[in-house]
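Comment on this:
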Amino acid sequence: MNRDSMIYVAGHTGLVGSAIVRSLETKGYRHILTRSRDEVDLMSQEQTRRFFVDNPIEYVFLAAAKVGGIMANSTQQGDFIYENLVIAMNVIRAAQEFGAKKLLNLGSSCIYPRQAPQPIREEYLLSGPLEPTNEGYAIAKIAALKMCRYFNEQYGTNFLSVMPTNLYGPGDSHDLKNSHVLPGLIRKFHLGKLLAEGRREAIAADINRHEPGQCSTFSECLEWLRNHGITKDAITLWGSGQPRREFLHVDDLAEATVFLMKHYNANDIGEVINIGVGEDISICELAVMIREAVGYAGKITWDSTKPDGMPRKLLDVSRIRKLGWQPTVPLAEGIACSYQSYLIFGAFR
């Protein structure tokens, strides 16, 4: 892959895709193709094929996906398996059919068994039952990486699959119904801080920006906040707080994907390669870090009637470290930058 290569980033408006575009632009790549869903609907095989027919695409970053946190995953399993399967099948097939030199498929660490030994090595894939709350999403991601592997074997393609750990950073979703844990916590503590400061207009503006039409009066705003466990004195969070998670800044992931796309082929990395930081933290510890970064003075309480998800999810990243890549953004620094990004782009102060 060189600076004149024709590169398609599928899902360029999302957390991962936008970070990959930033990384490519910073490195001087001149021909980066991006299309919105209105321009090319990757759920449509016909539109996807036509896009590849009309453009001499050499390299594909497949970051387009339906994503969400534990609430969305557990309540929308049908949508998650269907949409992610269709997008992956359409893009991977078109890349093979129209001769893309290389494709990098973005997966998720939720593909690994719920009770996988820790840290999780790549060979643990399909060695046990999946976490029930995100099984639909995980099965779709497993199917995509298997499709890449089998196309490599049958057609001689050069399709790579990478499995990042939990991601966060600029461009993340803060919708409390669909967000991942870290951006969701940032928003909850921010709203709790605004409530403690009596910032009514800022609260209403924040809620109506992310969930339009939810509250027309401040009483409705207060009810919405209570329904999401947010008060001026305490924030109630799902589960026990004991599960452990690993968090990777999305700009680090983008650097890793460009590094692999440029320097390595599918036969160098095997069926899948993990991307992470190699360290984890409990959700309780994470919540305390975010509370301090935001400046919320209230308590943290836990609703044990809600699911925890996988008890632990720490990736073994020894393989990618041996290839010469490692992350650069410490978690505390990344949280602080993510909160500032939220204040600038996603919140009302």
